[in-house]
Amino acid sequence: MSSLIIDLAYILVVASIVTIIFKRLKQPLVLGYIVAGFLAGPHMPYTPSVSSMEGIEEWSELGVIFLMFTLGLEFSFKKIVRMGIQPILTAIMVMCCMIGIGGMVALLFGWSSMDRIFLGGMLSMSSTTIIYKAFDDLGLRNKRFASGVISVLIIEDILGILLMVMLSALAVSRHFEGIELIKSLMKLAFFLLLWFLVGIYLLPLFLRKFRRYINNEMLLVVSVGLCFLLAVVASRIGYSPALGAFMMGSILAETLEAENIEKSVSSLRDLFGAVFFVSVGMMVEPSVLTSYWLPIIVLTLAVVLGQMFFGSLSFFVASGDLRLAVRSGFSMVQIGEFAFIIAGLGQELGVTSQFLYPVVVSVSIITTFFTPYIIKLAPKVCNRVEPTINVQLSVVNDKLKHSKVLSKNRRQGRLVFSPALAWKRFITAVLYQTAAYMTISIALAMFCFATIMPLCHHIMGERYGTIVCCVVTLLLLSPCIRPIVIRKNHSREVHYLRSLGKMMSLLVGVAIFIKVLIGFAIIYNVVSFVSPIWWVWRVLISIAALVLIVISRIVKYTSIRMERTFKQNLRLKEQQNTLSYGRRLRGKDLQIARVKVPMHSSWGGHSLAQLHFGKTDRVHIAAIIRAGHRINIPGGKNIIYPGDELEIVAGAEAIEALRARSEQELMQPQDRIKDKHSMSIISVRLSESSPLIGNTLQDVDFRLRYHCMVVGVENEQGHLDPTQAKRQFRQGDIVWVVGEEADLSMLTMVI
User: Fold this and answer.
1) Nearest CA-CA partner of 151 in 95, 76, 98, 93
2) Residue 581 pLDDT more than 80?
3) Strands, DSSP E only, in 511-638?
4) Mean pLDDT for the chain?
5) Is 289 within a domain?
6) CA 158 – CA 674 distance, rounded (Å)
7) Is residue 587 left, alpha or beta, with left meaning phi > 0 and alpha meaning psi from -120 to 50?
8) What is the pLDDT at residue 578?
């Protein structure tokens, strides 16, 4: 048998035993996995060890991929966009503060300059997978502050990729190159936007078209295949596979199948996620702990105290909510997988000391161990800090909330239309559209040059093949070029700005000319790439192509259909989950949501009057959805069954409380199999005095009279013959009867 399978079996057995102990001690499972990894690792001399750490690392990489994939399924980019600049600002502030703290600690111990730089990068990012798992174990994943923390962690992961590029360039050239950073940033933005646009456009269409052919098994295969596909693509172009997995999860999160996909992959996530945390525990080296105990302690305190203070401060500056800021900052007191990646990068480039990697791993293990306890400590700290907080902070908080209300009113169009607001809306819309369509245009052009051009050259020769490739490329790009040039040129904002005078009209004309110039530049670059003709001819051809694209009605309608399909796919899940009458409650204190009754819920079989949702939970049941059927405005006599969906109207806190209650109030395992009315089957030989002799089942109305059912009559060979309703019973027949035990006892006394 393969050593990889033997190692996997060993670590899973050890992990199961240790986690059962930790569960009994009411400790988070992630800590049990880490302890199990230490016991099964090569640095524990008193227990058996795995034979191949390389194989375990491959399994753990699968765990990171599945964890990031499911994270994307639960937290799409649309939620981050709705939060605005807050998570970005918070992530940048936290990372900058922690980089400075890491550099100062390394300077304190006299480490080299490259050690200081890389250590700052390692301490700058908290672990997305560890925090996600801790929230899951502690039941905090649906809390409001948890969503903000996950948003910041995602931004940190994206910024971490840029940080790795910067560290690589700095390690090689020994100096900072701003141009390389800008190129890396543009490359990352290009691929993220391309994946998002193409995925949102194609995947919902694919899933809708083949929905009737895709069952749960196929959905698992398709979703995991797409996850690994984008993970491989991300790895090929120089990014982390986890980033690709997260992007695919965020794309699939906008489809109607997101919930089913999440259920399908949850078991794989738990399995390989456990292997990942076990592999982290295997990296603990007791010799390093003893040799570098002081730096490990100082770095641990720096990470914990730094994140508690600067993390809370950053969240407070961005949100203005003290309690939310403290709970968020206290949740990020650890370092994780990105620290390992950066440490490995430093060793691979040969610019960091050999001790730095195990030291950082040890710090990660210790901070991970204390993370759940610090998360639980946050509410107590809030209760102690809030009464003594300075009055000025309250004033700042009020100003921040007031500015939020103003910005919200502006977004909803409640303020008077002003030139600044008109310019903001116009420029924002133009930037979004231009970025999206330029990204698609560049990707399509690269695809055509890499695939269509060699094919055309092979079939038609170089000269005519180049012409055909140029025409095909421009035809494919035309639905993307036209919106860049035309869209928003006749919008309400443009008409308003033109009405303000000649100067405003001139500025609007300049903005439109820039849009036209961008469309012309795309066409000119395509023509220049495939054609060596004189530049004047290239300009004339580009202008003619641009005019044809603008005036073509086919291109116009194709572009409109593409954009409508994209918007429909992007809003499909939201429209499905947000009922039409529920949209009118936006911005109000009440919301409409759906809560699913678990299969083993103790609510099953009880009426709404017995459950008292209105009194105990402060929610109103608007409808019950059962197997695709709706029961609108149900009364107190309506019964709740497992699997029902309750459509409720309540406040946000009441909705979350009811969801938590639905997951807690479950039948105990011993109650699920307990049945007061258990069924049984017996055989009865008909005596001479039996009232059944000479009668049929119809004659005696057997089911109604005895509350039992005859399933057959035993023949001479010992086989059961199905009983016909018109068959007469005879003396000596052995009749097999099914029923409840009490009814069967009465039956044996009668017949």
Assistant:
1) 76
2) no
3) 590-596, 620-626, 629-632
4) 79
5) no
6) 52
7) left
8) 47
Of the candidates 209, 217, 222, the one whose C-alpha atom is nearest the C-alpha of residue 251 is 222
Decide: 660 and 681 in contact? Cβ < 8 Å: no
Helix or strand holding residue 703 (H, E)? helix 702-706
The Cα angle at residue 349 between residues 346 and 352, in degrees rounded to 5 = 40
Task: Provide the domain count of the chain.
Answer: 4
Structure-token pair, residue 644: 């029902």
Identify the helix (H) or strand (E) that includes residue 526: helix 502-530
Cα distance between residue 526 and residue 438, in whole Å:
13
**Phi-psi category of residue 58: left, alpha or beta, with phi > 0 → left and psi -120 to 50 → alpha:** alpha
Check residue 413 and give its pLDDT: 43
In the numeric block, the tokens 């820039």 are attached to 514
Query: Which residue segment(s) compose the domain that 721 sits in?
Result: 679-750
List the structure tokens of 557: 């309608």
CB of 58 closer than 8 Å to CB of 6: no
Q: Which whole number is the average pLDDT over 217-223?
A: 86
pLDDT tens by residue, 644-699: 888 888 877 788 778 878 877 877 655 555 555 678 899 888 888 888 888 888 88
Instruction: Report the pLDDT value the prediction gives residue 411, as an integer from 0 to 100.
Output: 44
Angle at which helices 553-577 and 462-486 cross, to 10°: 60
Joined tokens for residue 306: 């730094």
Both tokens of 540, joined, read 């004339």
SS (H, E, C) 605-668: CCEHHHHCHHHHCCCEEEEEEECCEEEECCCCCCECCCCCEEEEEEEHHHHHHHHHHHHHCECC
Question: Average pLDDT in the 504-509 region?
Answer: 86
Q: Exposed e or buried b for every residue in 201-228, given b needs 16+ CB within 10 A? A: bebbeebeeeeeebeeeebbebbbebbb
Give the pLDDT of residue 585: 52
The average pLDDT across 580-599 equals: 65
- The model's pLDDT over 125-149, given as tens digits with 9 standing for 90+, comes to 888 777 877 787 777 776 778 878 8
Each residue's pLDDT tens digit, 336-395: 767 877 877 787 777 888 888 888 888 887 888 888 888 888 888 877 776 655 444 554
> Residue 307 gets which letter from DSSP?
I
Taking residues 99-126, report their average pLDDT: 88
The mean pLDDT value for 98-107 works out to 90
Percentages helix, strand, coil for the chain, rounded to the nearest 5?
Answer: 70, 5, 20
- Tell me whether residue 6 is in a domain: no
Same domain, yes or no: 353 and 502: no
The whole-model pTM stands at 0.67
Residue with tokens 């399924």: 73
Of 339, 357, 384, which marks where a domain is finished? 384
Cα gap 42→50, rounded to integer Å: 7
- Backbone torsions φ then ψ of 598, nearest 5 degrees: -60, 160
Q: Residues 620, 644: contact at Cβ < 8 Å?
A: no
How many other β-carbons are positioned within 10 Å of the β-carbon of residue 356?
23
State how far the Cα of 185 lies from the Cα of 177, in Å rounded to an integer.
13
Residue 30 confidence (pLDDT) above 80: no
Q: Does 392 map to a domain?
A: no
| Burial class for 397, CB neighbours closer than 10 Å (0-12, 13-18, 19+) | middle
Tell me, yes or no, whether 552 and 510 share the same domain: yes
Is pLDDT at 407 greater than 60 in this prediction? no
- pLDDT category at 587 given cuts 50, 70, 90 is very low
Residues 339 and 482 in one domain: no
Helices (H), 25-127: 29-40, 53-74, 77-83, 86-108, 113-123
Residue 41 lies in a domain: no
The domain boundary, picked from 611, 637, 672, lies at 672
